[in-house]
From TrEMBL:
This is AraC family transcriptional regulator. Keywords: DNA-binding, Membrane, Transcription, Transcription regulation, Transmembrane, Transmembrane helix. InterPro entries: Homeodomain-like_sf (IPR009057), HTH_AraC (IPR018060), HTH_AraC-typ_CS (IPR018062). It comes from the Bacteria. The keyword Membrane applies. The keyword Transmembrane helix applies. The chain crosses the membrane at residues 6-22, 34-51, 63-83, 95-113, 133-159, 171-195, 201-222.
Length: 378
């Protein structure tokens, strides 16, 4: 009873944390989406374990379709893509992300074909078909013993590109824990298949390890803020504090005369803070961003925001923000991850509000239209 309760709590927490990562602007990023999918996958595996314990599959045989799919193939894929995107090395790899899911797709199709015969009885596989299924099963086994270890080792190689030592440390711990669980699962599964060994107790222990992974990821993600580049925003979110602080930057709350004592040069503290907000927190992706919102974050007046931007950059506030948006568009155009997205979609995701605004700003900054720029990068 206690064991089942622990699994159910972990399932709920994994699903909830996955939804938080996907829906909250504080956590949502390309890398964290893969981590959310990893948590969903672990939750599904734990759910099948609970169904097995509660004999749900006996009462509802159709659920065997879920149980027989090898969700385990998704775990190294999602973990690797999380690390890969976390290190910002996506542009260096020519291998499309969907290739990492081919073993899972192959496994799922093979198992569904089997289940339509053995579980649902839709048809009966003939003798010749059974031989083919057996051969495909051997390929499935070969994929398991090669794909899973390879992708895990490749993940260790990818981590070296992380520049933040603290971030590298916690991701390395996560990878080590997940890798250990997967290797034990793989060895146990092979022992059960080849030696007819009862692996139920081992799988129960691995399920507990999966609950630990979910709990630990939640702790790191929410309380240690490691899943977000915008750690200060999360701190303020948790502590109901609207002020965002940075080391060595003393931001003044409200509009006081002190804001005008700062020298309006490139080393102006408020301008440095604004640069950090754009470069680290990507506030320009907010299509409703205006001087008032920025002023609130900086703790100064909207007029002073315009003054420091105009004085230091020689541009108005709108053009200053649009330059960051244009640079984001250029990076996304060059990134294979977005090659199937339309230019308008990329522009809107970068913070522009319409096609006209996007094209005009891009032309003003680069001297080319987005289409012309895209053609020159091919």
């Amino acid at each position: 009873m206690i064991y089942t309760t622990l699994l159910i709590i972990a399932i709920f927490q994994g699903m909830l944390l996955g939804l938080v990562i996907l829906k909250s602007s504080l956590f949502n990023s390309r890398s964290n989406r893969y981590l959310a999918c990893l948590l969903f996958t672990l939750s599904i595996k734990l759910l099948t374990q609970v169904f097995e314990i509660q004999h749900v599959f006996t009462s509802y045989p159709l659920l065997r379709f879920i149980d027989n799919i090898e969700w385990i193939f998704l775990i190294p894929a999602f973990l690797f893509l999380f690390i890969k995107n976390r290190t910002n090395t996506t542009g260096k790899s020519r291998l499309k992300n969907y290739w990492y899911f081919i073993p899972f797709a192959y496994s799922a199709v093979l198992n569904i074909v089997n289940d339509l015969d053995h579980v649902e009885g839709v048809y009966t596989i003939p003798e010749s078909g059974i031989t083919i299924i057996s051969i495909l099963g051997l390929i499935h086994l070969a994929l398991a013993v090669t794909f899973i270890p390879f992708l895990l080792f490749y993940s260790y190689f990818t981590i070296k590109h992380l520049k933040d030592s603290k971030e590298k440390k916690w991701i390395l711990i996560l990878l080590t824990i997940v890798s250990s669980v997967l290797f034990v699962w793989l060895i146990s599964a092979l022992a059960g298949l080849l030696l007819d060994y009862d692996i139920s107790s081992t799988m129960s222990i691995l399920a507990l390890c999966a609950t630990f992974i979910i709990h630990w990821t939640a702790y790191i993600g929410i309380y240690k803020y490691k899943l977000a580049k915008n750690k200060e925003a999360i701190y303020n979110f948790l502590n109901n504090d609207s002020a965002i602080s940075y080391p060595n930057l003393q931001i003044v709350q409200n509009n006081t005369p002190q804001e005008h004592r700062e020298s309006i040069t490139a080393d102006n503290l408020y301008f440095q803070k604004l640069e950090l907000l754009c470069k680290d927190q990507h506030i320009y992706t907010d299509s409703t961003l205006n001087r008032e919102k920025v002023a609130e974050k900086l703790g100064i007046s909207p007029g002073y925001v315009s003054q420091i931007v105009n004085t230091i950059t020689g541009d108005n506030f709108a053009h200053y923000i649009n330059q960051y948006r244009v640079e984001a568009v250029k990076e996304m155009i060059s990134d294979p991850e977005y090659e199937n997205d339309t230019l308008l979609t990329i522009g809107l995701e970068s913070g522009f509000t319409s096609k006209t605004t996007f094209y005009n700003a891009f032309k003003k900054v680069t001297g080319q239209t987005p289409n012309e720029y895209k053609n020159t990068t091919k």
